[in-house]
Design a protein that fits this description.
The structure is a single chain. With 99 residues, this protein is mainly alpha-helical. It has one domain. 72% of the residues lie in helices and 0% in strands. The protein has three helices and no strands. It starts with 8 loop residues before the first helix and ends in an 11-residue tail after the last helix.
Length: 99
């Protein structure tokens, strides 16, 4: 501020820079939070689909090897898991899911 008591151009620039940084930070945090939440939801949904698939195979008396169980549990592709769930209704062996 000048000796006259009036703000300088630099004072205004600093004020608006600080406001812009605060707005940018808030938007960035909100975006990051939303992305993290969506990723967590997708991961949880995939885990639930994998569990449903394994339960269906078990209910039908279809044996599931450790390798098949690991492959199903590791899958994060919801579309693939849904295809496997549909196939699980008619397969004779768990390995047939992957044909």
């Amino acid at each position: 501020m000048r000796k006259t008591g009036l703000p300088t151009l630099e004072d205004y620039a600093n004020k608006y820079k600080a406001e812009g940084e605060a707005v940018g930070l808030a938007k960035g945090e909100a975006t990051g939070e939303a992305k993290g939440e969506a990723k967590g939801e997708a991961k949880g949904e995939a885990k639930g689909e994998a569990k449903a698939l394994l339960l269906m195979l078990g209910a039908r008396g279809v044996p599931v090897s450790d390798g098949v169980r690991e492959r199903i549990s590791a899958c994060k592709d919801l579309d693939q898991l849904e295809r496997w769930i549909l196939r699980a209704a008619s397969v004779e062996s768990a390995e047939e899911l992957f044909d």
